Amino acid sequence: MTIQLNHTIVPSRDKKAGATFLAGILGLPEPEPFGPFLGVRTSNDVTLDYLDAAEVPSLHLAFLVSEAEFDEIFGRITERGVPYWADPLHRRPGEINTNDGGRGVYFTDPDGHNLEILTRPYGSGG
């Protein structure tokens, strides 16, 4: 059996602002409208479908990236002055973690979603 994540809905106070922020930081194509959604498509064809919502619970979205992609994305994070942390609880500001022999960093989007980029999956050793 092959099971793949196809899409998920990301509630947002302003779907255009949220989707544009994510696509810009990650270096992905411009968000695509689809019905009431604004979709950000990742390289494995999963879409994060931003939807305007009155209530926006905080989500955690983690993106596995290559070392080169990490450098590019982290460069955009720092260029834009986006605060970042080495941990999900934001107790280590301005640091990058080296979990499992890779690199990882957490940052928030305009809705307060806790976003993460990492170069090694957790539990992969190193």
TrEMBL record:
Specify whether Lyase is a keyword of the entry. yes
Classification via CDD domains: ChaP_like (cd08351)
Domain (VOC): residue spans on this chain: 4-120
**Molecular function GO terms recorded:** dioxygenase activity; lyase activity
* Alphabetical keyword list: Dioxygenase, Lyase, Oxidoreductase
Q: Mind telling me which SUPFAM superfamilies this protein's record contains?
A: Glyoxalase/Bleomycin resistance protein/Dihydroxybiphenyl dioxygenase (SSF54593)
Gene3D superfamilies attached here? 2,3-Dihydroxybiphenyl 1,2-Dioxygenase, domain 1 (3.10.180.10)
Q: Which residues cross the membrane?
A: none
**Protein name in the entry:** Catechol 2,3-dioxygenase-like lactoylglutathione lyase family enzyme
